[in-house]
Amino acid sequence: MAEEIRGQATKYAVVTGANKGIGFEICRQLASQGVVVVLTARNETRGVEAVEKLKGLIGLAKENVVFQQLDVMDPSTIASLAEFIKIQFGRIDILVNNAGIGGVTADADALRPKQESTGEKIQEVIEQYLRDNKENTLQAKGWPSLMSAYILSKAAMNTYSRVMAKKYPSIQINCICPGFVKTDMTYNSGILSIEQGAESPVMLALQPDAGPSGFFFVRKKVSSSL
After folding, report:
1. Which one of the listed residues 150, 160, 168, 187 is annotated catalytic?
2. What GO annotations for molecular function exist for this entry (predicted)?
3. What is the pLDDT of residues 21-44, one digit of tens each?
4. Which of 14, 46, 152, 191 could form a disulfide with 19 if both were Cys (CB 3.0 to 4.6 A apart)?
5. Contact at 8 Å (CB) between 149 and 125?
């Protein structure tokens, strides 16, 4: 199958958390541009259904979009995905880390860095937050009073992206806010459609080799803040 796909497209993409919402639409837009897409999701049934729906929407051949089960918090599924990509394609050109959860409480395992290379300063800040949260001293220590875990996790992710962009200059690594989009996570209260929300991540995913790296985008514009 890998050789047949290589004859049809030159780029291979993995999109996490892609069985619905913005992730699903990113898959649709990338596949419509001729990219071979690996749609991933935690739930296998929902993921397979999403792939079939996607194929029906844009009339793709079965090789142009495939499903692989992935839970980004489960190392075994990450390893399985990596092995699948190695065997089927030999590489990936695009990785869209779309998977996420909503919530306002701090979870130590979710916030704690999973690799030694996250950067000492980022890890220090996160560890301090976790200690203060455990001791119920967040407000006294000056942390944000509303959605502090969410804010910190986003700031850490954006900063880590910049660290990685400097460490791997041959790879374009960026963070992006797609805007306030009508999805299940926003209880469909957003002002942008899912199609509009996916446009900016797809724009970055399809940028030329000399494109920007190490930046935080708000939709299609570079932001001066984290």
Report:
1. 150
2. oxidoreductase activity
3. 999 999 999 999 999 999 999 999
4. 46
5. no
